[in-house]
Design brief:
- The complex is a heterodimer of chains A (106) and B (121).
- Chain A is an all-beta fold and 106 residues long.
- Chain B starts with a strand and ends with a strand.
- Classes of the chains: A mainly beta (106), B mainly beta (121).
């Protein structure tokens, strides 16, 4: 199975900050990488697919980059509603796997 | 509005069975692959199973292989997860998720609100 490793596991930031979360795959995943946001008690929300493409309705403050095995999610100008847990996910091959999550806290 | 609504969760004893359902609306269900993803209390997301648009290919996580069966009824816009031989470690919130394509190598774009499964005696 492909292992997805995120760093950091938790991150403290302030409103207005810019933060970057890293995700590393245990093997080349051909850019089949998604980022998902989850707020406490809520269902996940898909943000990014194909490493850098925004889902409809997702603001451009979210951006994804990377290729092969190393990927990043950057969130600019943090607002209170951005504080959540973020997961990366590979969908290159079954079983699809998620990273362990990065909790973004104020 | 694109929507997925899960149902069928509940409290069940270890070793028993449960069948989850996911009803889709707002899109052409038969044109997309579908998935189940679960989240144990206080834990991260775990992909459970996926099924192609035409049920032509099905995949499972190793943790549920041989115990869970995914299926779909395109005429009823519905996805199912038959869970047998349930264990305490299957306790989780189960989400239904829509694939962006018909088969493999596509991300998810829509998630349901989840249905809770608790396995306990």
């Amino acid at each position: 199975d492909i292992q997805m490793t995120q760093s950091p596991s938790s991150l403290s930031a302030s409103v207005g900050d810019r933060v970057t979360i890293t995700c590393r795959a245990s093997q080349d995943i051909n850019n089949f990488l998604a980022w998902v946001q989850q707020k406490p008690g809520k269902a996940p929300r898909s943000l990014i697919y194909a490493a850098s493409s925004l889902q409809p309705g997702v603001p451009s403050k979210f951006s994804g980059r990377g290729s092969g095995t190393d990927f990043t999610l950057t969130i600019s100008s943090l607002q209170p509603e951005d504080f959540a847990t973020y997961y990366c996910q590979q969908y290159d091959r079954y079983p699809y796997t998620f990273g362990q999550g990065t909790k973004l806290e104020i | 509005e694109l929507q997925l609504v899960e149902s069928g969760g509940g409290l069940v004893q270890p070793g028993r069975s449960l069948r989850l359902s996911c009803t889709a609306s707002g899109f052409t269900f038969r044109d997309y692959a579908m998935h189940w993803v679960r989240q144990a209390p206080g834990r991260g997301l775990e992909w459970v199973s996926g099924i192609y648009w035409n049920s032509g290919n099905i995949a499972y996580a190793d943790s549920v292989k041989g115990r869970f069966t995914i299926s779909r009824d395109n005429a009823k816009n519905s996805l199912y997860l038959q869970m047998n031989s349930l264990r305490a470690e299957d306790t989780a919130l189960y989400y239904c998720a829509k694939d962006m394509g018909m088969a493999q190598d596509n991300a998810f774009d829509i998630w349901g609100q989840g249905t809770r499964v608790t396995v306990s005696s």
